[in-house]
């Protein structure tokens, strides 16, 4: 069986920071409330109105190409996980393809909100496992500021803008790569976390604008209860299925929606804080970008063979976990992918 392995990681973060102190000036909130309830201190915002999700996704993709040392023409497939596409159509993946010059690629968008990156990674891995493709770009990107109501304190403190991207390639040995996945959805939670306007059910009108239906809506406490259970359960499930104990796990790579959800998941897995990737304090919830952003921030510390558990919960509801063994040491891109002969020749 061909395993898909992540062979490079890239990212894009807008420069502009929106701090808790900035938000104190905008809505009735406090730095303390936000930090204690969510763990967030600041988030990044793409303020340039001429730039959108595809811009961030393409920058993250270019960093992947540059780190892996490959040309855009080598990409077979581009999958963009997002709930904030530049437009309903064409797909953001097509805009990324054009921007980076991936002449041979096809691509599509995938909508699974905060679980989008995991669902896209699982999808991309199938094209590698089948032998159909050699190089698949999987991107998680969201410009959440475009659908956030900055007069609603319940949601505007939570979200940020960013993109993260990885390259999937066939692993040359069975010791590394994506080992297992558990993915779920349950539409009974659709109304608890959604953007009700703009689609075919509630097309844009003065009425939908007046009712603020083009902004993200969330029933926070309802989603919180399901997220705590869902993310912890699925992480425990994938560990049990693969005979992993807390000691075997090098890192939990969780979706960054709320520090309390992450903590509950880590407790259930039997791992300490030092094994949990957390950057929610700096970026907030960037929806599909959170997991690749964590991989980017921790990449230099990762070792070939490290057992990682990626876990998420989001709108839909959608949730899941992926178990993978990391394929290279530090940022030495390609380690373990090529033969030693190829490496020494390069
Ligand atoms: N500042 C100050 N007070 C606030 C704020 C704020 N920013 N927001 C809400 N409050 C108030 C509420 O009005 C409420 O006041 P009341 O008791 O007087 O009515 C009180 O604080 C408690 O509000 P809750 O909503 O119950 O607060 P909670 O502890 O649940 O935290 C939060 C809210 C952070 C949103 C939490 O519910 C959460 O993390 N939910 C899950 C988020 C998640 O995982 N989403 C899925 C991924 S996102 C995606 O898929 C796009």
Structural class: alpha/beta
Give the name of the CATH superfamily of the largest domain: Thiolase/Chalcone synthase
- Which bin fits the share of residues in helices? 25-40%
CATH class of the largest domain: Alpha Beta
Describe the structure in your own words:
The protein has two domains: 4-170, 3-Layer(aba) Sandwich (Peroxisomal Thiolase, Chain A, domain 1), CATH 3.40.47; 177-325, Peroxisomal Thiolase, Chain A, domain 1, CATH 3.40.47.10. The longest helix has 22 residues, at 220-241. It is α/β, with parallel strands linked by helices and 346 residues long. The chain contains twelve helices and 13 strands. 33% of the residues lie in helices and 22% in strands. Residues 29, 33-34, 37-38, 113-114, 153-154, 157, 193, 220-221, 223-224, 227, 257-258, 261, 285, 287, 313-315 line the site of acetyl coenzyme *A.
Short description:
With 346 residues, the chain is of the alpha/beta class. It has helices at residues 20-26, 31-38, 53-68, 92-100, 116-129, 153-156, 206-210, 220-241, 259-269, 280-283, 290-298, 340-345, and strands at residues 4-12, 17-19, 42-44, 77-81, 106-110, 136-143, 161-170, 177-185, 193-194, 217-218, 251-254, 307-314, 318-325.
